[in-house]
Structure formats: C-alpha cells, structure tokens
C-alpha cells in the first residue's frame, strides 16, 4: 500500500510516497481503509521537528492525524465495529492518516456522519474534537453565555462557532474581512476583521475567549473577559499572574482522541445544525502541496487529501 512518510525533519520536500506493507491489527485494534485524510497545522509541525511527540526514533514516520474510511480488518476483542462499517477517527500520533490503510484503537473511532461523504467527514475529527474539548471540557461554556473565538474561519474555528451556537451561546469571532459572509452563514453573532479592527474595543465582555491564534491576540483578550470567566488556548499558556489578578481561569491544552465525543459531533452534524467546509482537496501524492497551501494560502475551513477512490 502507499503511505506518505518522512525519513528526516525538514520542509515539504522531505515527504515521500513510499510503498509499505499493509498493517495487521492487534487484538484491540482495527484497520481502516482510508478514503480521505485531512491536513492539519500539526502535520507540518511534526514534519518540521517542532512537535516533541515525534522524534527521530519514530522514522520513517507516516504523517496525518485524521481519516474517514471503512473497517477493513479487526482484532479479536473488537466487538463494536464490523467489517465494512463506515467510520471516521482522530488518531493518536502512533499512526498516521496519509496512507491507504491505518491502524486505530476502537475507542478512537466513531460511525461516520451519514449526511457527509468521506472527504467532508475526514475534515471533522481533529478539528471537531479540538473545538469540543476547548469550548466544553476546558472552557465550560454553557447556554446563554458569551464566547469570543479567535480564528473563526479556520478548521477548528468554523466548527467551534457552530458547536457554541448549537449549545445556546452567543458567539463573536475574529477573522479576515473576506470571511464575513461565510461566518455569518455559520451563525456567528458578531464578526470582527482582525486586520482592520481591534476586537477589544468592539466586543462587550465575554465569559470565554477560545484562542486559536495566540501572541498579542491572546494578550489583548484579557481586557474583555468577565471576572469568573476563562481564556482557553490551543497554542500557548496565558499569563497566570494576570489571570489571577483578574479572577479568570486560563489554560492551554492538547486535544485528545475520543470516539465517544466524535460520535456526539457526528450526531450534531447529522441533525443539520453543523456544516463542514472543505476549501480544497489534493491527491495523496500531493500531500506536500496540500501542507504548503495550508501554511501559505488563505484557507476557509479545511484541506483534505483524497486517498482512495
Ligand atoms: N492544542 C491542540 O491540540 C491543537 C489542536 C488543533 C489545532 N491547534 C492549533 O490551533 C490553531 C488553529 O488550528 P486550525 O486547524 O483552525 O488552523 P487553520 O485552519 O490554519 O486556521 C487558522 C485561522 O486563523 C486565522 N488567523 C490568523 N491570524 C489571525 C488573527 N490575528 N486573528 C484572527 N484570526 C487569525 C486564519 O485566517 P487568515 O487565513 O484570514 O489569516 C485562519 O482562518 C493552529 O495554530 C493549530 O496548530 C492546536
């Protein structure tokens, strides 16, 4: 089978399409025949050697963290999925998604949303679980509260806006001006152009800032969080002293695979309350170009690799 692997850290040129053996599942694992795999910012960080979980000991390493496909093989103790079941998954860093068949643990996978094709479904797992855990597990967002989501037009942000709205929250978001119509279509209540406006002078105080941008955007966010509120980031730990002085809760987290949460997300998607935006697709052999596009171009939603047709 084909897999996109790295044999050393570096730029997109270190990714190569290798011919490798199809994996065999352990007793508690399944093999997913991959129809589509999405591209996430973490894939490029791993390729560049900037994500400490992947070291030179892991070479040759298959990139990619989420997939949509069907069960092609299962270990003896797996009873929750049958051969041919359509599934999607956010994988642990032990197994990569840019390949034709991938190993997954049965508790990482969920039944694919019936209303999505494999390309759309592959766009969901990592971004969706990151949004879910940031808003609800760490951010403790509740119905009737106000949330500001930085980076609303990206992979995580466009799902986070819709999850927050579906939970009954009021949602403001920062993005480029060109994304205004896209974001209002997702239900955002207030949209701020981060290039020409200063959100902290426009948005009324919020209960939660969900930060997908970091840097000075995170620093400027403190002033609009209510006492007792929270600032949760996917990227960097917010200033603890400032948080204590202001009486707010802060945190930086790493999203963890969860088949159970993914199944809740699938249900929400099939209810019609959450739309998935795929901006562009590439072939498996074009994975380097896909990562380059995510890093350098303006992408609305997600980029997905079509792996098997
Ligand atoms: N900790 C974790 O477990 C975890 C999980 C997932 C993602 N992440 C991280 O979270 C971040 C977001 O992930 P993603 O997949 O959504 O990335 P993405 O798809 O690349 O989206 C990033 C978005 O941020 C926008 N943006 C850039 N600068 C901005 C600013 N100053 N203000 C407002 N928006 C801005 C971009 O818009 P323009 O194109 O218009 O600039 C883009 O829409 C990434 O850095 C990723 O590495 C961490």
TrEMBL record:
Name by which UniProt lists this protein: NADP-dependent oxidoreductase
Ranges where the Enoyl reductase (ER) domain occurs: 10-305
Cited Pfam families: ADH_N, ADH_zinc_N_2
Keywords: Oxidoreductase
InterPro entries recorded: ADH-like_N, ER, GroES-like_sf, NAD(P)-bd_dom_sf, Quin_OxRdtase/zeta-crystal_CS, YIM1/Zinc_Alcohol_DH_Fams
The organism's place on the tree of life at top rank: Bacteria
Molecular function via GO: oxidoreductase activity; zinc ion binding
